């Protein structure tokens, strides 16, 4: 049985997505413009599925444009599924490279913060090594 049309607040609760985020996705055409009943936006099951897809993709670090492409691929002709899968794989592979680069950055940041905190624990410094690192006078980040 299909759900009746639901309001944006209900969609927000079902998908655990901020109302302003839903409106933003509509403005940038990631979500279709909702039907209106008077002054109120109304949504249906396909909107729930689409918003969940978008949330999962955002959770995996895909950009808005990548999500737009993935949504297009998800709607493509089943006969072209091999090509769609190949295209989706390429988008995911590119995203994976980006994720790995961010992880490398986070590891570098972790090392710099660890060194700064460890320097704070040593008595040989005057002042604060962490604050000195942030002002550029001590530890290189």
UniProtKB/TrEMBL annotation:
UniProt key word Chloroplast: no
HTH merR-type domain: from which residue to which, for each copy? 5-73
**Keyword annotations:** DNA-binding
Q: Which domain of life is it from?
A: Bacteria
User: Where is the chain membrane-spanning?
Assistant: none
* InterPro entries the record matches: DNA-bd_dom_put_sf, MerR-type_HTH_dom, MerR_fam
Q: Which SMART domains match?
A: HTH_MERR
Q: Which GO terms describe its molecular function?
A: DNA binding; DNA-binding transcription factor activity
Q: Which PANTHER family match?
A: HTH-TYPE TRANSCRIPTIONAL REGULATOR ZNTR (PTHR30204:SF92), REDOX-CYCLING DRUG-SENSING TRANSCRIPTIONAL ACTIVATOR SOXR (PTHR30204)
Protein name per UniProt: MerR family mercuric resistance operon transcriptional regulator
């Amino acid at each position: 049985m299909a759900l009746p049309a639901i309001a944006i607040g209900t969609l927000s609760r079902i998908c655990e997505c901020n109302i302003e985020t839903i409106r933003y996705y509509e403005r940038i055409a990631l979500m279709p413009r909702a039907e209106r009943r008077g002054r109120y936006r109304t949504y249906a099951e396909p909107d729930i599925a689409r918003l969940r897809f978008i949330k999962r993709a955002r959770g995996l670090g895909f950009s808005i444009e990548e999500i737009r492409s993935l949504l297009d691929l998800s709607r493509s002709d089943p006969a072209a599924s091999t090509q769609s899968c190949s295209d989706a794989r390429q988008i995911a592979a590119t995203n994976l490279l980006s994720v790995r680069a961010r992880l490398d950055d986070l590891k570098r940041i972790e090392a710099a913060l660890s060194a700064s905190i460890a320097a704070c624990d040593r008595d040989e410094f005057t002042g604060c090594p962490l604050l000195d690192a942030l002002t550029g006078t001590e530890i290189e980040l």
